[in-house]
Amino acid sequence: MSASDRAGRGAPCWVSLLTSNLTAAQDFYSAVMGWTFRPGSLGEAFSVALADGKPVAGIGNVAKSMGVPVSWTSYFAVDDADVVAARIRERGATVAVGPIAVGRGRAALAADPAGAVFGFWEGKLLPGWHIGSGGAPAWLELRTRDAFASAMFYGEVFEWATDRPGRIEVRYEDDAVMVLTGGQTVACLRGGGVEAAPDPRVRPRWHVYFCVDDVEKAVEAALAAGGTVAAEPGRSPVGREATLRDPEGGLFTVTAQAEC
């Protein structure tokens, strides 16, 4: 089965939290997002978050063992992980982990030329997962310094905007790069002064937006569960949102945008 049969070659296909305390992470996201959890297929260190019984995200208790910070990672579907890894290296970026065999597929972690970490996946996907469904991510956003340079990098690596069936579309709107599949916006690449972001610790990164019914209630639940607020609730061009950190430092945004 090719990537184009599953999520669209080069399209977002999964998000995963690399944490250092699986139990604490499950407790926090259960309180804030209402998720339940089941064991993953990769062993006791992994679990799958469910919203209304459907998979929305993965959590892996691997941050310490991999020597990486606690963070949410966005994955993109590919047909051949080795080919994609070669394209990344050819463009001066880094493949930090893999491609390695994981379950019924192969995964890798990489960093783009600006340092933003992302993953890519060759293999079958969990059924029922797609951007904007239920508690799954509403969309992904790359916060970087030069959105157009990043669009060139990802476009070449994942073959965005190429002349093929099921291609990923790329549009330029309001000084940002919008990534669409099937007419739906699934990701945005936004440039500017990263150091001037609401949280000054944020450097170029892929950021995950999750749908919630009520932003204020999610913020209250996060604070009660030991999280912190990186950006207070406010209105954005697409809806009300707030940016939070879980107790281990994982950064994410909750949004009540109309598309959720």
TrEMBL record:
Source species, domain of life: Bacteria
Pfam family, one: Glyoxalase_6
CDD domains named in the record: SgaA_N_like
Residue ranges constituting the VOC domain according to the UniProt record: 11-123, 136-257
InterPro entries: Anthracycline_SecMetBiosynth (IPR052164), Glyas_Bleomycin-R_OHBP_Dase (IPR029068), Glyoxalase_6 (IPR041581), VOC_core (IPR037523)
Transmembrane intervals: none
Protein name: VOC domain-containing protein
Protein species of origin: Streptomyces netropsis
